[in-house]
Design brief:
seven-stranded mixed sheet; O-methyltransferase; O-methyltransferase activity; binds S-adenosylmethionine; single chain; alpha/beta; 219 residues; methyltransferase
Length: 219
């Protein structure tokens, strides 16, 4: 079997970014506001090109029912919100009132406030309260890595056939290759990746994009 891949240098990465849909003014403002307000934590924010991917995926599945686990200051929710079909809604879960107060302001600015609902509190509990039926078109997982398995267990049965799960940070800066992981997040992601790949309910593609993104389509 042939193996075809390239190492993405910084220059090549800039080229990739320059040849996709550029971010809008709102996304640039949100990135700057997040940097100013959260400092080092701003590194948790998805990149503008990742936001463009999320909007595209949301449009591709014609999402009317979407869920996000891990909202932070709102970049990914803006991206999903923009891609929703007519009448669509996004339910967001996060534990931080402080971070999500920034997201709320940007939802207002984007004219998306009536399409996005924030549920504050541990996402495991929030997800358990969602309707127990396969109705979700799109789900994005980007919160505490130790709970990815639990989020998956809650979400996969609620995805409709053809629905898309998008999971962030699945390469964890390459630490998923550690044979003896030194921290709980790495160990959890290694277990999660094996679990997702072996799940017969979904087709899975892992993209070496950003910090690693798993796309899983419900069969
Ligand atoms: C990586 S950030 C999300 C980044 C966001 N998707 C974006 O595009 O900017 C992770 C978020 O998960 C939230 N979080 C951490 N543990 C959580 C939990 N148990 N339940 C819900 N949210 C949680 C954090 O407050 C943080 O805002």
């Amino acid at each position: 079997m042939s193996r075809s891949f390239i190492t993405v240098t910084e220059e090549l990465h800039d080229y990739v970014v320059a040849h996709g849909t550029p971010p809008g003014e709102l996304e640039l403002d949100l990135a700057a506001e997040t940097q100013r307000a959260t400092g080092r934590a701003a590194g948790m924010q998805i990149e503008p090109e990742y936001a463009a991917l999320l909007t595209m995926l949301t449009r591709l599945v014609h999402a009317r029912h979407a869920v996000e686990v891990g909202t932070f200051t709102g970049m990914s929710s803006l991206a999903i919100g923009r891609g929703l079909a007519e009448g669509g809604r996004l339910v967001c879960f996060d534990i931080s009132d402080e971070y999500t107060s920034i997201a709320r302001r940007f939802w207002q600015r984007a004219g998306l406030a009536d399409k996005i609902e924030l549920r504050l509190g541990p996402a495991v509990e929030g997800l358990a309260a969602l309707p127990d039926e396969p109705y979700l078109d799109l789900a994005f997982i980007d919160a505490d890595k130790e709970s990815y398995g639990a989020y998956w267990d809650a979400l996969v049965p609620r995805m409709r056939s053809g629905g898309m799960l998008v999971v962030d940070n699945v390469l964890w800066s390459g630490r998923v290759l550690d044979e003896h992981p030194k921290d709980a997040s790495t160990a959890s992601l290694i277990d999660f990746n094996a679990k997702a790949a072996a799940d017969p309910r979904v087709d899975v593609v892992m993209l070496p994009f950003s910090d690693g993104v798993t796309l899983a389509r419900k069969r």
